[in-house]
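Problem: given the chain below (113 residues), write out its structure.
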Amino acid sequence: AVEAAKGSTITAQELKAKMDAGEDFLLVDVREPAEFEIIRIPGSVLIPKGDILNGSALSQLPQDREIVVYCKSGIRSAEVLAALKHAGLANSVHVQGGVIAWQAQVDPSLPTY
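Solution.
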């Protein structure tokens, strides 16, 4: 997973800049539904890690758009990133520090868990 994340990692601030610039990408939260309910990055869709790793959710992912994945802290999203690259979705990145970094650096009004 570390290998896949090289050069394919963005910070929470970089994600915010992409949003502000109106870039076209799919933001995917790979945590579990209960976590998604507590705090999520605006505009994200929930596709739990297991559904991507077992291949069942791969068909939901676009081939022609950048995919940005995040989790709570960056561990799960790095695993998912490796799986996406392996599946040929080369245009994928993950958010360093996950939703914790987003809360800390971008929107401190959000709850933490």
